[in-house]
Amino acid sequence: MPEITSAPVGRKPDTNKRSWHRKASRPVSGWLAALLIVAIVSPWIPQSRWLLVHMVTLGVATTSIMVWGQYFTEAILHNHLTEADRNRQVLRIRLLTAGIVVTCIGMVAAWPWVTVAGAVVVGSMLTWYAFALAHQVRHALPGRFDSTVRFYCAAACLLPLGATLGAIMAFSPVEPWRARLLVAHQALNLLGFVGLTVVGTLITLWPTVLRTTMQPAQDRHGRYSLYVMIAAVAVTIVGALCGLWWLAAVGVTTYIVGICLVLGDLVACAVSKPPRDFPGFTMGAAICWMLVWLVWLAWKLASKGTGLLADDIFTLSVPVVVGFLLQLLIGAMSYLMPMVMGGGPKIVRATNAKMHAFGSLRATITNAGLLLWVLAIGTWTHRIGIAMAVVGLASFLPATAAMVHTGVPMLKEKARQMAAQKAAADQGQSPEATSDKPAVSATPQPATAQTPDRSAVAGTTTKTVDPAPTAPTNRRSFVGACAGVATALTATAVGHRLDANNPASGVGQVSPTGHTTTVSVTAEAMKYHPSTISVPAGDELVVEITNKDPNQVHDLQFANGAHSPRLEPGDHATVKAGVITGPLEGWCTIVGHKSMGMVLQVQVNGASAAGGHDDQAGSADPRRKIDLTKAPGKGLTTRDAVVPPLLAGRVHAMTLTVEESVQEIAPDTTIDAMTYNGRYMGPVIHARIGDQMRVHLVNKGTMGHSLDFHAGTVSPNEVMRTIAPGQELDYTFTLPRAGMWLYHCSTMPMSAHIAAGMFGAVIVPPHDLPRADREYYLVQSETYLDERNGAEVNMAKIANETPDLTMFNGHANQYVFEPLKAKVGERVRIWVLAAGPSRGCSFHVVGTQFDTVFKEGAYTLKRGNPEGGGCQALDLSSAQGGFVEMVFEEPGRYTFVNHSFVEMERGAKGIIEVTS
């Protein structure tokens, strides 16, 4: 957005309203330009959908709200700000911009704590903005519309709460919390902050844009509407966070009712004087997009129920944010910027003519493109729709440049003539004698900080500026709209032809038949039954899926995006897969289930299924580059490696609770972990031979889980069975023999569950074990990472045996930065277990030798052995354990490693710090 560069003569640029507006609006110009660039290169940017949405909502919308919110506050309250006030406003907007940039960097780079830092700055600036508006209300005389400014304050206070939820979402929470947080986040930011501000502004701005009078009760209806909307936002947030989707749907429906309270007045204004230029067209279309989205959102919340996923809410996020929010802002700015530029009626008419040029054509292309974006089936038609919407909205930039190019010379000429007239008057000459041209306008004076231009807000002054168009409105609008429709139809035809020539686009030469093929599918034993479906070309496919697995959670996701919710045992869902024009694949998204064969192939007219579904081997992502020289994150608590005391008594009752959460396993590296008792790698149990363990397993996860204790000898049929979310089981066994025993989740695929953190150790010391001065435990495991932080384990890497990290006690380098402790002459015993899921361990301590080795239930070396022998490494295959003992003879820092050095270099090392 080119800058408005005019300033009244004889006044310091930094003290007047226009100069402040020029400085404050610079970030909006930058965000619009950046948004255009990102829209073009989005296929190559990680998290591009997220980035586009937040560049609009935070970059363009929030900054614009702070600029124009202050503008309307001054107009409504008739107040005057000092130079210090304006400097603080500009500083606040610049700091907001910096916070938004930091937030975007953190999210795109998958650095959640950077995202949190940016969110803190954004929230702080909006809180400051809210208090600044409240201060102005408190020191202003009562007015007809001062309640609108109070709603601005309330709306601004909601964004910090929304930013808090957004920061939490940066840590990639899993369902159902991902959907809950997303709905609450959108309720606070879009319905609360943006919606309240927009509706509060439209009460006065909409009739002004239409150049008509307000309805008699419009201000009163507006207040009622805003109160209802605030209550609706609160209900929606409570419903979302509590998982009460029916309550959230009631909240959104109530929000629609709140809008309708004032919508009747807005429609009456439009009937009285229909929109006739670009601002009216685009703002009217934006209101329609908002209502469509709200109705769709209420329907989604009510119909999906507990099966709601975050992806369901994302479906319309980008086009609606563009269609409603960005279009509304551009329409409002197209009207307001010539008014702020000012200069009198003649100059305003001239700048409006440039700003609103081809308005109906631009608005038609924008909204036709948005409709194609939302409704198109083919890839090329979809892309063309996006391109049309971008071109239509981007036309705002050259229009603004043309406005400035026209207005600035006229303002300068007017200022020159007024200065000449003033000089002539001072010398006693006739003003006309000093000018070789007629004055542009001698009577109107430019607005200043002391006499603000309030002509852009209905009801604030009896004098209005009517920027009449330069040609008959109806004829120009009709021709422009027809040209826009013709462009959209042509684009649709071109897109359809391109899609028809590109089978991969999903349209091909197949026309919809209008028929529906409904197929019943069951999920059981890691298979879909049937696993292949044949559908006539052009039919719409509806899959009715039932989970008949007694313990496992399953779902169905198709490659075209259609999907079911996660189904617990016995649950049922219907998936509309759309019109089938070519082979289509579906699969279960539960981690590891696809690799185990849960793939559904859709064939067309009996054609052979698509290529083999087992694409795991040979397709693994490259190993993550992780800087293990960095310290663990500040939020990580190093696991205490000291062997816990023996459990008291001989019968031990304990509870293991299954939970899923994002956890750090290396510096700047997180994983969607599966845990026992809330931490990657479960607790270590220390008990005696013959003790009885009574373990109570509670599954609070989102999928089936189980337990397998190697330390016991029991039939696995009952105690090791998989239990569904919400279920519990009791696992009782006795410890018959000594050793360091593995326990882990035995739900298939076990490799994925162990790599995700579902493992632990049971230490059972042999009879008459001598005392050691210090006793530690180290459980080695490896994991396989996605390229993104906070994601599930990568099954392709597990199949190819290409781990990213090898760790002791659940973190790659925690004992490098917080070493284990010992003193010279002390006997140190270290219990070691190779938990896998696949790799073993060659445990070695650099600089010392082991004089005692106990491996898999027996001593292979005892202290003081007659042979005088020692040991340099304890070799353990996956699921094997034991202990070693050593005595350090000198102080120093001794490194312990997996002497398979490739594993050491992936994190299997630590330090023992020995002091004298």
Quick recap:
The chain contains 22 helices and 27 strands.
Could you explain the architecture of this structure?
It is a single chain. The protein has 916 residues and is α+β, with helices and mostly antiparallel strands. The protein has 5 domains: 11-171, no CATH class; 173-341, no CATH class; 350-415 and 470-509, no CATH class; 516-604, Immunoglobulin-like; 651-915, Cupredoxins -  blue copper proteins (Immunoglobulin-like, Sandwich), CATH 2.60.40. It contains 22 helices and 27 strands. The strands form 6 sheets. It has a 6-stranded mixed beta sheet. The chain is elongated and about 125 Å long. Residues 1-21, 419-476, 608-631 are annotated as: Disordered.
Structural features:
916 residues, Multicopper oxidase domain-containing protein, elongated, 18% strand, 22 helices, membrane, oxidoreductase, transmembrane, alpha+beta, EfeO_Cupredoxin
The major pleated sheet works out as:
6 strands, mixed
Total domain units: 5
Give the beta-strand count: 27
**Strand line-up in the sheet with most strands:** 18-17-20-25-22-23
CATH topology group of the largest domain: Immunoglobulin-like
Oligomer: single chain
Strand content: 15-25%
Unreliable segments (pLDDT under 50, ≥5 consecutive)?
1-15, 434-455, 461-472, 607-619
